[in-house]
Amino acid sequence: PVSLATGPEGALYVVDMHRAVIEHPEWIPDAVEATVDIRAGDDKGRIYRIVPRDGLPMVRPGLATADLPALVDGLAHPNRWWRDTAQRILVERADPAIVPLAIELLRAGGIARGRLHALWTLRGLSALGVDEILTALSDPEPGVRENALVLAEDHLQDSETLRQTVMTMADDPHARVRMRVALALGGLDAPEARAGLQAVLVRDASHRWTRYAALAGVRDGAAGADRHRVE
After folding, report:
1. What are the two backbone dihedrals, phi and then psi, of residue 62, each rounded to the nearest 5 degrees?
2. 10 exposed, middle or buried (CB, 10 Å; 0-12, 13-18, 19+)?
3. Which of 14, 56, 102, 173 stands the most exposed, by the fewest C-beta atoms within 10 Å?
4. Could you tell me which residues are beta bridge partners of residue 47?
5. What is the pLDDT of residues 14-56, one digit of tens each?
6. Which element (helix H / strand E) includes 192?
């Protein structure tokens, strides 16, 4: 198997693994495990570092000892390695002082990827509330709205404001957001939710996966009133 990753300096790392058995022993039946060498090939394989012709200087990120503002700034870094690592360290530290910094980035960050990582950092810290989800649902970047809908699903039963906001997003201009709306509303058994599902279905019936998402959430023939419009 081969996997790809970007390093902190921007190089592309290609890991070419030659292990004969890649499954974890926990998932191999004991009778089968007794007949194979689960370590076979652990002395083989290669790691390729791919860089521009002129090369790339190596860097020492130092994120493990960085202060909280620096880590939060790292959530908007153009290199995914920095963003993912900063988010992981912030969640591992679980410092309450992180929460207001992440909320500020979510609300006022000028870079969409930073707002996205702030959203999931708050989730990782168990500090993501309805207000923060509502902020992300109104984000100008469709990818942020799409992720906010994923996180909204756990709170829809408890927040009328959140439910109404999600239902209005059935008319979102971006198709991926509308599909996620259908998936979110599919977990609700309410007339308003059915209306939102019908709206998505009528608009996106020609898109297979959105159609499946909307139909999966429709119960008891609730889409019947609009059936002629879909056909």
Report:
1. 65, 25
2. middle
3. 173
4. 15
5. 998 888 888 888 899 999 999 999 889 888 889 999 999 999 9
6. helix 191-204
118 near 75, Cβ under 8 Å? yes
Q: Is the dihedral of CA 175, 178, 180, 182 positive or negative?
A: negative
Q: Are 213 and 186 in contact (CB under 8 A)?
A: yes
Q: In the block, which residue shows the tokens 């709306």?
A: 181
Residue 154 is encoded by which pair of tokens?
A: 């756990």
Q: For the segment 86-106, what is each residue's pLDDT rounded down to a tens digit?
A: 999 999 999 999 999 999 999
CA distance 110 to 13: 30
Q: Quick one: CA dihedral 181, 182, 183, 186, positive or negative?
A: positive
CA distance linking residue 220 with residue 201, whole number of Å = 16
